[in-house]
Design a protein that fits this description.
The structure holds two protein chains of two kinds. Chain A has one domain. Chain A has a two-stranded antiparallel sheet with strand order 1-2. Chain A is mainly alpha-helical. Chain A is built from ten helices and two strands, in the order ααααααααββαα. Chain B is mostly helical. Chain B has two domains: 120 residues, no CATH class; 153 residues, no CATH class. Helix content of chain B is 61%, strand content 0%. In chain B, helix 11 runs parallel beside helix 14. The longest helix of chain B is centred in the first third of the chain and has 24 residues. The mean pLDDT of chain B is 89. Classes of the chains: A mainly alpha, B mainly alpha. The interface between A and B is medium-sized, with 14 and 10 residues.
Chain lengths: 221, 315
């Protein structure tokens, strides 16, 4: 069971997808104009990721190595079509807002990345834990980023006004360049937090890239 | 025999005597005619915006450097210059929080995120201005927020009321800053005077402003040939709005403009043509800000045009 917990929790901070693995950035940047869009997208990815990880892990010994990518895509595509139809039936406004990014979950790097890196080598239970953890991390990241952008860019959070009256929304944040800047600042913040937590310097200077050796401002101090 | 045979001090071995501090303070000196004309033209509100932006820029720079554990170098004047240039683009009626947000973005995101002085890919002041312009377009419309002025915004006149309204502005009036616009950016004559000082001092390479203005004038002329009853003449485009200010104080920003001779010419031409394209086809009457931001992004490409190495034979 400790294996299950370990695989589950790694997706929440240590390998949190958009910020640590820097995977799945296309929807991260595109659909996070509002917190509920981010949440909806994240839930769709959890559904696809958990089921595709389980399915691929279950048939991993049957898939010929040479055509494995095609097999992964077929599995993911079937699941995405299911999500799409469910969304059209029960959450049509959300489906309209997410638009093309729902079918594009098929080619989301996270789905393929976890299939290739984890599910194709591990058992069904572990793969499920991995998919659940990574998917949850992705959802949390997207909701957080969407909430941040919505709060500053529109003055609302999940559609409710949160900023004081008279706040002039920073409309830049809900535009495309705001997504890049916001994501960049969050990545920097995560690195800062990790560094404050760990505070460990690299084992030796020779491991650093050449242009870093001369400067060293990031690990001395 | 003891001791080293041959000792060499750390480079640079031969210093030209130019200091970044001197460059930026001279740029501020060159900006002073613009500031004086702005204060004469817009009075106390202009002083308010300029002082707030300048002070905020220095404070934000100091805070950023302290957070990074760097040596404070606000005395080199670059932060103050950036703050003042940013303020020059704003209407004199800009609210205080807009000034603070713009300066924070300009210095924090435009300069320090990329590593401080000399590393910014786009002109920091323009980045701050662009963020404000996208976020609060109404508050940066000079003709919406500056209602108690005797003047009108020539570029908006051209866009909404046609060529005749634009040509009602005399060239002398435009040159003397008797037009509505950014509080310093519309002081065309003062910007020209300061810019010529910068060129004479060798701080601004002459190619960038000259080719910027040439590109704008040539494309304005072409547009006039194509649409004789819609377009204003090239001289109007050179004097109206922030053209001259942009040519001397924005486009040649050292960190963001290319360095080679041909590269500077191409960069200036591109920015000038983009200004005219945005003015003619864009939704916003003024085009200098986004034109220069876009041209900044092409700088790494222009820098691939390498000068011939010293000593290599002429082919």
């Amino acid at each position: 069971m400790s294996g299950f917990g370990k695989e589950f929790t790694k997706g929440l901070w240590r390998e949190i997808p958009p910020f640590r693995l820097v995977l799945g950035l296309c929807p991260t940047l595109a659909v996070t104009k509002a917190a509920d869009n981010g949440l909806g997208m994240g839930l769709a990815v959890i559904f696809v990721l958990v089921l595709s990880n389980m399915a691929i892990s279950a048939i991993r010994n049957l898939i010929p190595n040479k055509v494995r990518i095609a097999c992964f895509i077929v599995v993911a595509a079937s699941l995405v079509v299911m999500v799409e139809l469910i969304m059209q039936a029960y959450a049509y406004p959300l489906y309209q807002k997410l638009g093309i990014f729902v079918p594009l979950i098929v080619v989301n790097c996270i789905i393929l990345g976890r299939a290739e890196a984890f599910a194709a080598r591990n058992g069904v239970i572990d793969s499920m834990a991995d998919g659940l953890g990574i998917g949850l991390g992705y959802t949390v990241s997207l909701t957080f980023l969407g909430g941040l952008r919505e709060t500053f860019g529109a003055g609302t959070l999940f559609g409710q006004a949160v900023m004081p009256a008279g706040y002039q929304p920073l409309g830049f944040m809900v535009e495309a360049p705001g997504a890049f800047i916001c994501l960049g600042l969050l990545l920097g913040l995560m690195n800062l937090v990790s560094r404050l937590q760990g505070r460990k310097s690299p084992a030796s200077v020779s491991e650093l890239p050449a242009q870093c050796r001369a400067c060293g401002s990031c690990y001395r101090s | 025999m003891s001791g080293p045979l041959f000792t060499v001090s750390a480079p640079p071995h031969w210093h030209s005597g130019r200091l970044s501090r001197q460059i930026f303070w001279e740029s501020i000196l060159a900006l002073s005619p613009v500031l004086v004309m702005a204060v004469i033209g817009y009075g106390l509100p202009a002083v308010r915006v300029l002082a707030l932006a300048g002070a905020a820029a220095v404070v934000v720079e100091a805070v950023c450097e302290r957070l990074q554990g760097r040596e404070l170098d606000v005395d080199n004047g670059h932060a103050l210059l950036t703050g003042l240039v940013f303020a020059c683009l704003l209407p004199a009626a800009a609210p205080w929080w807009l000034v603070l947000v713009g300066v924070g973005v300009a210095i924090g995101v435009g300069k320090h995120v990329f590593g401080g002085l000399g590393t910014s890919p786009v002109v920091p002041a323009l980045l701050g201005y662009a963020v404000c312009q996208i976020s609060w377009p109404g508050l940066l419309r000079y003709d919406f927020v500056q209602l108690d002025s005797l003047f009108s915004w020539p570029l908006a006149d051209l866009k909404y009321y046609g060529r005749a309204a634009a040509e009602a502005h005399g060239y002398a009036d435009l040159l003397l800053g008797r037009q509505l616009g950014g509080l310093g950016a519309c002081q065309a004559g003062a910007a020209l005077a300061g810019g010529l000082f910068l060129v004479a001092r060798g701080i601004v390479p002459w190619r960038i402003p000259v080719f910027f203005l040439a590109g704008l004038a040539a494309s304005a002329f072409a547009y006039q040939l194509a649409y004789p009853d819609l377009a204003a003449d090239p001289l109007f485009h050179l004097l109206a709005g922030s053209t001259l200010f942009a040519a001397f104080f924005l486009a040649p920003e050292m960190a963001c403009a290319p360095a080679g001779r041909a590269a500077m010419a191409g960069y200036g031409l591109l920015a000038g043509v983009l200004v005219m394209i945005i003015r003619a086809y864009g939704v916003w009457p003024e085009g200098t800000t986004f034109a220069i931001l876009l041209a900044n992004l092409t700088t790494p490409l222009w820098d691939r045009i390498r000068p011939r190495a010293f000593g290599k034979g002429r082919a």
